[in-house]
Amino acid sequence: MTTGATGRPGRRPGPTETREKILACARRLFAEKGYDGASLRGIAREAGVDPALVHHFFGGKQGVFVAAMQFPLDPGVLLERIAQAPRDRLGETLATVFLDVWSDPARRAPLLAVLRSAMTNEQAATMMRQFVSATLLRPATELYGIPPIRIQAAVGQMIGVAMLRYVLEVEPIASAAPQELVAMLAPVLQHHLEHG
Amino acid sequence: MTTGATGRPGRRPGPTETREKILACARRLFAEKGYDGASLRGIAREAGVDPALVHHFFGGKQGVFVAAMQFPLDPGVLLERIAQAPRDRLGETLATVFLDVWSDPARRAPLLAVLRSAMTNEQAATMMRQFVSATLLRPATELYGIPPIRIQAAVGQMIGVAMLRYVLEVEPIASAAPQELVAMLAPVLQHHLEHG
């Protein structure tokens, strides 16, 4: 029996219920197998649905992860903003995107939660490492031919500034204006990305 | 009754016991009042000893903190190594000292513990912020006249690389040779410290 014409729920789960079930299975599989080890097909099998439905809801494994982990960034959106920048303004664009994301309190709290759990939990660190590699580091390397270690040096600069500014709240970097930080970080990020 | 000529312990506590008592009181006071708010005199009062004895054991408040928190770095030793570098090799010296410290597993574990607790505990973050400001950032500013935000940008670069290399263990930065990292980081650190 499916949902009747009256709109009353029947025994078949509605789309919201199915979506939640997929996300719960995804969380379990990502935690068990890491980002690389879990597949869209495996998540669908666990949830007892067709892989096409998972694809329809979330667009792909990356989208399932972002939704399941309530990950505060969509790497696809980030990459698109960065890909539009001219090569000689990559550093400035990265610094600007980075500060935009962190300046928004609604995204900062979950970002901090992600950083904290990766710092204190091996399983979370593995998931995060694989997810960031697959969705940001590898595509950026392919897009610009920049060696991964150079991208990591730039990411390290930004993560460290975020820790001092938003976690340890060290002054004066905690209260500095975003444009002051962009001016300070842009040349360094550009250097990292240019000297591969 | 004090320790007799035979060396048997009397009722007065021996030096080890007194030292431990001072450290226990210091841990409580640093946690309660932060690094800035706790004084050597206050720690001595809590422990029921003369401030001169605390000074004799630990050299000063900084030494009490390093001992009480089992802090894996002595900022005085670090500053001395950095102060000996010519100004135009500050970046290289900082990168080298930084990798020396982190490459030593005996110091890495407690450093990670410090970073983790500062990431997850507000009280630990306050203590750490005040301690690092008083013992590293302010002296470095006075020594070289470098604006604190510039020193913080350099420290941010190093903390971020440490997180990627030692906590998240992202490849290839996790397995890179120290000299490759020094070559990569030195010019960036030098830039931060020169362009105040």
Automatic annotation (TrEMBL), chains A, B:
Superkingdom classification of source: Bacteria
InterPro entries registered for this protein in UniProt: Homeodomain-like_sf (IPR009057), HTH-type_TetR-like_transc_reg (IPR050109), HTH_TetR (IPR001647), Tet_transcr_reg_TetR-rel_C_sf (IPR036271), TetR_C_16 (IPR041678)
Keyword Transit peptide set for record: no
Pfam families cross-referenced by the UniProt entry: TetR_C_16, TetR_N
DNA-binding region: 39-58
Positions of the HTH tetR-type domain: 16-76
GO molecular function: DNA-binding transcription factor activity; transcription cis-regulatory region binding
Keywords recorded for this protein, A-Z: DNA-binding
DNA-binding is among the record's keywords: yes
Protein name according to UniProt: AcrR family transcriptional regulator
Organism (species): Thermomonospora cellulosilytica
